[in-house]
Design a protein that fits this description.
50% of the residues lie in helices and 7% in strands. By secondary structure, the protein is mostly helical.
Length: 111
């Protein structure tokens, strides 16, 4: 099984780089996954990541993109909930890349 080194400790990830156990996720793991994804995390990235994790913690599932964008719109306004904005943060897709960095399970339909 592939591993990601975080602070000198191995963390198990899938062949595609998805965290195998979302319970071990922390900010350092998020930063390591982001580096592997070529994403430099800003406060705006962290807002999206924390919202994705909060939804997962509350409902036990990854939010569908339509639902997630509605939540972001309610909390941050329409300018921070558009697809264009989210793709600027996560060029490989907010659902795929955002959830991967957030240490969440791979959403259905994401390769």
């Amino acid at each position: 099984m592939p591993e990601l080194m975080v602070n000198g400790q191995p963390v198990e990830v899938s062949e595609a780089g998805w965290l195998e156990n979302c319970q071990v996720w922390n900010d350092d793991i998020a930063r390591a996954i982001a580096v592997a994804e070529g994403v430099e995390l800003t406060d705006e990235h962290w807002d999206v990541i924390r919202e994705a994790r909060a939804y997962f913690d509350e409902y036990g599932i990854v939010a569908e993109q339509r639902v997630f964008m509605k939540l972001l719109k309610e909390k941050y306004g329409p300018e921070r909930a558009s697809q264009q904005y989210l793709y600027q943060l996560f060029p490989h897709g907010p659902l795929k890349q955002g959830n991967k960095i957030a240490g969440l399970p791979r959403p259905k339909g994401c390769s």
